[in-house]
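Hallway conversation turned thread

IA: we were arguing at lunch whether anyone had actually written out ABC transporter ATP-binding protein end to end. Turns out nobody had. So, for the record, here is the sequence (591 residues) and right after it the structure tokens. Reply here if something looks off.
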Amino acid sequence: MFELKWLWQNLEGNKARYIVALCLSVLGSSLTIVNPYISQRIVDTFIAGDNALQNLTQERGLLITLCLGMIGFSLLRTGLAYLTTMQYEISSQNMLYQIRIYLYNKIQGQDRAYYDHNRTGDLMTKMTGDLDMVRHSMAWIFKTIIESVTIFLAAVIYFFTIDAALTLWMLILSPLIFVVAYIFAKHVRPMYVDLRERLSQLNTTTQENISGNRVVKAFAREEFEIKKFTEKNVNYSTANKKAALVWLDYFPYLETFAQAFNVILLLAGGLFLMNDRITFGEFAAISSLIWAVSNPMRNIGIIINDIQRFFASLSKIIDIHYARPRIVNEHNPVDKRRYEGRIEFEHISFKYDSATVLDDVSFTVEPGETVAIMGSTGSGKTTLINLIPRFYDVSEGRVLVDGIDVRELELDQLRGNIGIATQDVLLFSDTIDGNIAYGEPELSEEATIHNAQLAAAHEFIIRMPEGYDTVVGERGVGLSGGQKQRIALARAIAVRRPILILDDTTSAVDLETEEHIQKSLRELDYPCTKIIIAQRVSTTAQADRILILDGGRVIEQGTHAELLARRGYYYDVFMLQNEGIGRQVIAHGKE
Ligand SMILES: Nc1ncnc2c1ncn2[C@@H]1O[C@H](COP(=O)(O)OP(=O)(O)OP(=O)(O)O)[C@@H](O)[C@H]1O
């Protein structure tokens, strides 16, 4: 089985321990027949045998030995069970730990497209519930199966040594039980696949609801969200019940078969006893072990249910393992530590799945230049800049950095040469200090403050209760939009990379603060090519060049003054934003 092979490979380092656990399981379970055997000897020798009374007086030593043997074997089995469980637990926990790290690394290594297509809730379910289910199966379900099978076989072999014909009578129903179990397993499998999907939907809804809590509150949509959650919860619960209850359709047959073991034993065993084919002791031993044959039949449904759950979870985990990022290093990537910062878009086009978002875009940014990109919403600005650090790869054309196609550059080095502040600001649950130093963990305190000053963030940070040590939440809880943007900007410039990309980073700050930030950016004390997406003319006016995107195409290109002179899109935006102060800014742009 492919899935089990995968699991076995991932048990690396714990295989020996797991095999020991399996062997201990087999050994401990085989010993189940020892005490019934001893009790058979006791009954036949000291209770029901022909010379029972005589033996009781003459063979006391044997009786005591047999009794002590029973106690000893019980203790031995308890000790073995303890050791066995310990080995299963340790090996499965170690495996879980290893696989979790491995899968986490895999998820970290995925490209943006992977995150576009996989829901966070689903990934979380895989990394938690599914992994736990697999571990639980390794530690408990496989143990139960191995032990049930061993006890069953040991008991059957023991019965055969007593009387083969009687054993065959007792096993007469076994093939039927396996047929019923097989049909049940086939019936229930798709239900567990469906159940797993519904669990993932439930988790996705919960995750979205919690992270989007502020939007929910803002629109007073709590009731709607509760309804949505309840619906997913009901779906999951119904699927759970359906899968669990389907067992009840089969249960009466299997329970009847399991009960029949006792009836057959009473009828056939009684006859064999009366005909002196078996002794009282042997009858007692079979009676005391009949559970070993009937219980696995009874539990077969529970085991099949758990196995189906196990395979449903395992296949989800394996999905992560085999998901290959499309954006990876070339075979022999170009090794270049520090870039100059020359960026060139050469007739590039880009499609998300099938929709064309960028169409034949060409432009060049020389090292140290500042290029501003403007355009209507959805015109492809963010998509365009995402092509530089290879968050996505072009569909056609080439993006070159320092004259080399980005696909030929070493990916970590490429991204390590770019400082980026994204449009959707995400701050980690950490101190402000920790957030600013995220890309440069060794950043000194002075440097942190310096970068915060450049990003016009220092003033508000020092006014916070714990200054730079203030912990901000998952998404910068407690900070205004503009404050978050400024911390994100400080984080982007703190890494001192030769390419700086700012995606609408100052949209939420006031004009005065923005003026300060623009000045800082112009005066950065390290060589840096800047690409700035902005909607405000006040941000773009000082750029060396401004590109206007519309519908994925560059429709205008030039300096502030040149674009104003063209009287196109840029001019219209300028007029809209500067009614009344237009003249002043025109003059400024011409400087
Ligand atoms: N991950 C994605 N998958 C599919 N389509 C996407 C994805 N991201 C963006 N798009 C689509 O690509 C187009 C361009 O989006 P993009 O974010 O680049 O625009 P933008 O110019 O940056 O917009 P805005 O100014 O609103 O940020 C839009 O039509 C958008 O719906």
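OS: looked through it. The longest helix spans residues 222-274.
IA: good, adding that to the notes. The first strand starts at residue 343 and ends at 352.
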